[in-house]
Write a structure and sequence with these properties.
Length: about 150
């Protein structure tokens, strides 16, 4: 992870194509939804792919998001009192979010890999997962969705 140098040739081309799929406008909509869903306590990221990645990287915001879609008393992800600082704990928190999202109904093909977020390999995949989660929450119409229902497709 730490000793990753620049990409060359085909690796650079592939990474460039992946990065072009990231949608800045979609990022704004997802941030608005996450803040509306979880409350202002989650804060806001700096604009752009890197700020969005740093905001979500430790898994706490994602865990709060998925927990907010469940009624009180049945939260699927345990959130530690202090945000995890060790890499494997952060990745474990992201993995718990991914498992909870799949249990909520997000299709496996719409779920990003932990490394996509943690190393910012494919932030567009992270956006796709959050869009699928939001669309499911709107569709379920169980009273746990907060925000503008027009932000997502039913």
């Amino acid at each position: 992870m730490a000793n990753k140098g620049p990409a060359y040739g085909m690796s650079r081309d592939v990474q460039s194509k992946i990065e072009k799929k990231y949608d800045e406008e979609l990022e704004d909509r997802l941030v608005e939804w996450i803040v509306a869903q979880c409350g202002a306590a989650v804060g806001r990221p700096e604009r752009g792919r890197l700020g969005f990645q740093v905001w979500l990287k430790n898994g706490i915001v994602l865990s709060r998001l998925v927990n907010s879609l469940y009624p009180d008393g049945s939260k699927p992800v345990k959130i530690p009192d202090a945000p995890p600082t060790m890499v494997f704990k952060q990745m474990e928190q992201i993995a718990q979010f991914l498992k909870a999202a799949e249990d909520y109904g997000v299709v496996k093909t719409d779920i990003f890999q932990t490394v996509d977020l943690f190393e910012a390999k494919d932030m567009a995949a992270v956006q796709r997962t959050l869009m699928a989660l939001g669309s499911l929450a709107v569709t379920k119409n169980d009273g746990n969705y907060h925000g503008d229902p027009n932000w997502f497709m039913k």
